[in-house]
Every structure is written in structure tokens, then in C-alpha cells.
Amino acid sequence: MVVLATGDIYIADTGNHTIRTLSAGQLSTSLGTPGTAGATDGTFWVAGVPGTAQLTSPRDLVANAAGGIFWTDGGT
Fold it and tell me: Where is pLDDT greater, at 52 or 22?
């Protein structure tokens, strides 16, 4: 998981193939489809709308100074 300066927490939900966001007490799926592995490029969460990319076992989240989120993924 990684915590941004905004206080938002991003969590690699490896077993569910998603990245989750905890913001203002609300947990949401930012990227991926829960329970469905995939390897499809797509968008990340923008303005509360989940992204379209599909992940396989995301992990190792990091953030840069601008708030960009990066992760490793087991997808092929």
C-alpha cells in the first residue's frame, strides 16, 4: 500500500487483481475487476470513475512526488 500527501491510501489487492483506494473513509476499486485476472492496458481511476485496465496480482505500490501511482503486476 502507499499513502499520498492527500491522505488517500492505495492498496494492492493482489488476490482480487485490483488496486483499491481508501479516501475519506470510503473504499473503492480504482483499477481492475474484482476476482478477474487480466492483462489489458487502460485508464486509471479519474474523477471517481474506475479505470479500464485489467491486472493480474498487482503488488509493490509506490508513488512519486506528483502523486503518480506505480506498481508491479504478474500479468503477461
Answer: 22
Alpha-carbon gap, residue 76 to 65, rounded angstroms: 28
Instruction: Please list the residues that pair with 72 across neighbouring strands.
Output: 59
Nearest to 61 by CA among 76, 48, 46, 44: 44
Average pLDDT value for the chain = 86
Residue 53 one-letter amino acid: A
pLDDT surpassing 60 at residue 76? no
Sheet holding 18-23, edge to edge: 2-3, 9-13, 18-23, 26-31
Q: How far apart are CA 15 and CA 56, in angstroms?
A: 9
| Count, residues in the chain | 76
